[in-house]
Write a structure and sequence with these properties.
The structure is a single chain. The protein is mainly alpha-helical. It has two domains: 161 residues, no CATH class; 82 residues, no CATH class. The N terminus is likely disordered.
Length: 253
């Protein structure tokens, strides 16, 4: 007989889960730090790519404090490292969550997480090719007849990093909804009934995460998020149909 009381056993399990989570987070952070140091040595090339969208509107970026340029390079190194090691972060998520599920679902969980990594990169590319140029076009030509833009490198890098990470995260939305449907935690019918609330929540979320306060930049992210939500609803419906088909097939045999 187990000498540990059930309540104490639950506490021990909870502490063990926290320790495992801590381990996975520390591994991810360590890899990001090491990768950031390596990327920092090549940061000049990366910076030329990052500043390419803004160069058509202004000359060289400026800095107004001795540490601003150095801090901007550090931010770029961290951003590049997160993008590069994102598959490892996905693996650490799978390693932490996988043991909690049955073997068959564990395999599907890995597929879902791989899809999340792919969509994350699509979101990063979307931000670079669509969201950032559109935002810069609106913001830097808004008062062009009144003032000339003189953008600091720190402000621009913060703006760039925010849009890149945001784009990557929001593109994972269909995978999140599909995974919840596959785990039978939500249904496509439930998602359809909550569509109006979802649209409102997306608009509020887009307004919060947008680094500027204009409606144009908010819509740049809100519209794709709404479309991605609809894609998630469709994906949930397809999963339900596949499961019903599999169940009926097993019953007939």
């Amino acid at each position: 007989m187990n000498a540990v009381y059930p309540e104490e056993s639950k506490k021990i399990d909870f502490i063990a889960h926290l320790e495992e989570l801590r381990k996975r987070i520390l591994i991810s952070l360590a890899v990001i730090v090491v990768c950031s140091v390596a990327v920092f040595t090549k940061c000049g090339l990366i910076m030329s790519v990052i500043t390419s969208p803004v160069r058509e509107y202004t000359g060289k970026l400026v800095f107004i404090s001795p540490t601003e340029a150095f801090s901007a390079y550090i931010k770029v190194s961290i951003l590049a490292s997160i993008v590069l090691v994102f598959p490892l972060i996905i693996y650490e998520v799978w390693a932490f969550l996988g043991p909690a599920f049955k073997k068959d679902f564990r395999k599907r969980l890995m597929v879902w997480l791989i899809a999340a990594a792919g969509l994350f990169y699509i979101g990063v590319i979307f931000s670079y090719l669509v969201a950032i140029p559109a935002a810069l076009s609106f913001l830097l030509t808004f008062a062009v007849n009144v003032a000339e833009p003189a953008i600091t490198i720190g402000k621009y890098i913060s703006f760039f990093c925010a849009l890149e990470i945001t784009g990557g995260i929001i593109f994972i939305l269909p995978v999140c909804l599909g995974l919840l449907a596959d785990a039978e935690l939500v249904s496509s019918a439930f998602l359809r009934t909550k569509r109006p609330l979802a649209v409102i929540a997306i608009m509020v979320f887009a307004a919060i995460i947008t680094p500027t306060q204009d409606i144009v930049n908010m819509l740049i992210f809100a519209i794709p998020m709404i479309l991605l939500f609809e894609a998630g609803v469709l994906l949930a419906r397809c999963i339900e149909r596949r499961k019903r088909s599999s169940s009926s097939h097993l019953i007939t045999h």
